[in-house]
Design a protein that fits this description.
Blueprint lengths: L2 H22 L3 H5 L5 E5 L4 E6 L4 E7 L4 E6 L6 E5 L4 E5 L6 E6 L6 E4 L5 E6 L4 E7 L4 E8 L4 E6 L5 E6 L4 E6 L4 E7 L4 E6 L5 E6 L4 E6 L6 E7 L4 E6 L5 E6 L4 E6 L4 E7 L4 E6 L5 E6 L4 E6 L4 E7 L4 E6 L7
């Protein structure tokens, strides 16, 4: 073989190696691809879209009950629970395999749901019926302990890290209510800004953040005293709605549904430190395991949008069902 031929073979092999490297290592999919599916809840289609994060294809749709609005991973992450508000039921799905595990009936109007961190309690809000339900949880099914009448249109829940206090927002009476979990007693209620939606507590249980869907920002409450005390309003964008911790115990993302943005809040300084584009009514979010990519439901576009927090761009959209709401995956960053 001539020297020229040998060099040709060498450079051809090098080009092939570089091509394989670019396809496998530098491929956009490989930057965020996880092992387990991403689930997107379609509220007006009564279904859950199952998305393969390696191919970014919807692989199947799982039928749910009527008007599923929120979904939640149990703290042990063995089940993804879908709350079917108009069907008065809960659907349990394996977050690893997307197989249906079981359905639990007789859960009245479960709009939003949350488990206590110690997994002894399960709490739902009845958005249409104006009450909060507190259940004991035995690991298999919830048992109703107390039904508490509240203000108009209870919306979202937060339970503190000690599993002792429930915070619930009232969307149409502009209120925050505080419930003592061990005694199931409503111990405080107070006015908030317009249309309070999601709530988020800092890891030290000192502050509570409330997204004002009828306003332009997030209210911050000091909850270390006997009663919550409003200490600040953080301007984020019109229609502040849902929270997702950034996984570093310092920052939290909030979707601004009307402004079509997502803001990043430093909850040590209680200030916005970054903003990202989020098209078509951004709602609930999840975060990739490395914290780089936000998976957000684009409510008005029937799509899941993927946002790269480093480049601040929408890098992918996946078509799903009508009015996508909740987004969860097992391959996620920590919740705080």
């Amino acid at each position: 073989m001539t020297i020229f031929a040998r060099f040709s073979v060498f450079f051809a092999a090098r080009r092939s190696a570089l091509l394989i490297f670019s396809l496998v290592v530098l491929s956009p999919c490989s930057l965020w691809a996880g092992v387990h599916p991403i689930f997107v809840l379609n509220s007006l289609d009564a279904s859950v879209s199952v998305i393969d994060p390696a191919t970014w294809k919807e692989t199947r749709r799982i039928p749910t009950g009527k008007e599923p609005h929120h979904l939640y991973l149990t703290p042990d992450e063995k089940s993804l629970v879908i709350a079917n508000a108009l069907s008065d039921s809960l659907l349990f799905i394996d977050p690893k395999t997307a197989e249906v595990q079981r359905t639990v009936s007789d859960i009245l109007d479960p709009y939003q749901l949350r488990f206590s961190p110690d997994m002894k309690w399960f709490v739902t809000v009845a958005n249409r019926l104006n009450h909060v339900d507190i259940y004991r949880w035995d690991g298999t099914k919830p048992t109703l302990v107390k039904r508490i009448s509240t203000g108009k249109t209870p919306s979202h829940l937060w339970i503190d890290s000690k599993s002792t206090t429930v915070y619930a927002t009232m969307q149409d009476s502009d209120e925050l209510v505080v419930i003592d979990l061990p005694t199931q007693v409503l111990k405080w209620r107070g006015k908030t800004g317009a249309m309070p939606a999601d709530v988020f507590g800092t890891p030290d249980d000192k502050f509570l953040l409330i997204g004002l869907t009828g306003g332009e920002g997030v209210e911050v409450y000091d909850v270390t005293g006997r009663e919550p005390k409003l200490v600040k309003l953080i301007k984020t964008g019109q229609g502040a709605h849902a929270f997702r911790g950034a996984g570093n115990k310092r920052h939290v993302f909030v979707s601004n549904r009307v402004a079509n943005t997502i803001s990043k809040i430093d909850y040590q300084t209680m200030a916005v430190v970054d903003n990202y584009p989020a098209p078509s009514g951004p709602d609930c979010m999840d975060l990739s395991a490395d914290g780089r990519f936000i998976y957000v439901a684009s409510r008005w576009a029937k799509k899941l949008s993927v946002i790269d927090t480093q480049t601040k761009t929408v890098v992918r959209q996946v078509k799903v069902g009508k009015s996508p709401h909740g987004v969860w995956t097992l391959d996620h960053a920590p919740r705080h």
